Amino acid sequence: MVRVIEYQLEGVAEAEPLYRVVTTILDLTEAPAEELAALYPERWEIEGALDELKTHLRGAKIVLRSKTPDLVRQEFYGLLMAHFAIRGLMHEAALKADEDPDRLSFVHAVRVIRRKLPSFHAIPPQGRRQCSMRGYWRRFWKNERYPAAIAATHAGSSAR
């Protein structure tokens, strides 16, 4: 047995006339219809993040190289940290450009970072010289003129 929840998005120009969510949660007090309807778009946020991680960051045909469970876990955590770092940089850039961070293209940001990586020098071991990653990334985005890239992203793609 399933429960079907129908709802509409008021005031959204590109919205479908009717949305339906199907759930096996039958208890109306456990999961009110309004709450499920509000949470449904969040599911797609998670799906989008998984797509960014699996397809655009790691690469569509690239498999994890590690051969033991601990190393696979380590490699996966490394990908999660890279995704978090990229999303963090995108968030900073969007705030500086007074834009909604969700409107930026993740694919574009990955391309920018991959293009800049060859010029990125290794961080020296602790004690030799203080190195500010925050300062590096500020210079990185300033040199990239990221607000201009935001405008290009809006014009060329709505993908994240």
Notes on the protein architecture:
- With 160 residues, this protein is mostly helical.
- The protein has a domain at 64-156.
- Helices cover 54% and strands 6% of the residues.
- Strands 1-2 form a two-stranded antiparallel ribbon.
- The longest helix is centred in the middle third of the chain and has 28 residues, at 69-96.
- The chain is extended, with a radius of gyration of 21 Å.
- The protein starts with a strand and ends with a helix.
Radius of gyration: 21 Å
Order of helices and strands: EEHHHHH
Spatial strand order of the main sheet? 1-2
Calculate the terminal CA-CA distance, rounded to whole Å.
36 Å
Helix content: 40-55%
Average pLDDT score: 78
Summarize the structure.
The chain is built from five helices and two strands.
Map the helices and strands:
Elements: E1 3-7, E2 19-23, H1 33-57, H2 69-96, H3 106-116, H4 133-144, H5 146-156
Antiparallel strand pairs: 1-2
Keywords:
54% helix, single chain, two-stranded antiparallel ribbon, 160 residues, 6% strand, mainly alpha, 5 helices, extended
